[in-house]
Amino acid sequence: MPKTRSTSETQIRRERRELVQQMPPGGEVLKASLIERFTVCGRPGCRCQQGQKHGPYLYASIFDGKQSRQIYVPQAMEAEVRRWAGNYHRLSTIIAQLSALSVDSIRLQQPGKATKKERQAKR
């Protein structure tokens, strides 16, 4: 989506519809950072004692408002959890763009307030 301000309600509605169509499927979001870890088990003679660590193991780092938690992601769920986290990041971007369009819509309704494009056209 271009960074220039929308100049008409029709354009704002069209851009909103396009953004809503890009939203991920309902419920498939996870607000988390994904971390891959390698571990050392501590068994005598294990390969990890010579530097060949076990892993990678995937963890989802989640902040619950009070503290960060890391939750192990089973290998069978890795693709799904990666998709959920990606969906969250896409959704965040879309919400920011929708909010900017709402600001443009408010500004268009203010009497005597021209958009940047309109002021430049008058020059």
Low-confidence stretches: none
Q: Strands across the major sheet, in which order? A: 1-2-3
When the domains are counted, the total is: 1
Residue share in helices? Answer: 40-55%
Helix and strand sequence: HEEEHH
Could you tell me the mean pLDDT? 87
- Note the overall shape: elongated
Main sheet, how many strands, which sense, barrel?
Answer: 3 strands, antiparallel
Number of strand segments: 3
**Percent of residues in β-strands:** 15-25%
Q: Give the N-terminus to C-terminus distance in angstroms.
A: 26 Å
* Computed structural class: alpha+beta
- Estimated radius of gyration: 23 Å
Helical run tally = 3
Q: What's a quick, concise take on this entry?
A:
The protein has three helices and three strands. It is of the alpha+beta class. β2 (54-63) and β3 (68-72) form a beta hairpin.
Structure description:
With 123 residues, the protein is α+β, with helices and mostly antiparallel strands. The protein has one domain. It is built from three helices and three strands. Helix 1 (9-21) packs antiparallel against helix 2. It is elongated and about 80 Å long.
Pick out its properties.
alpha+beta; three-stranded antiparallel sheet; 3 strands; 41% helix
Which secondary structure elements does this structure contain, and how are they paired or packed?
Elements: H1 9-21, E1 33-39, E2 54-63, E3 68-72, H2 78-108, H3 116-122
Antiparallel strand pairs: 1-2, 2-3
Helix pairs in contact: 1-2
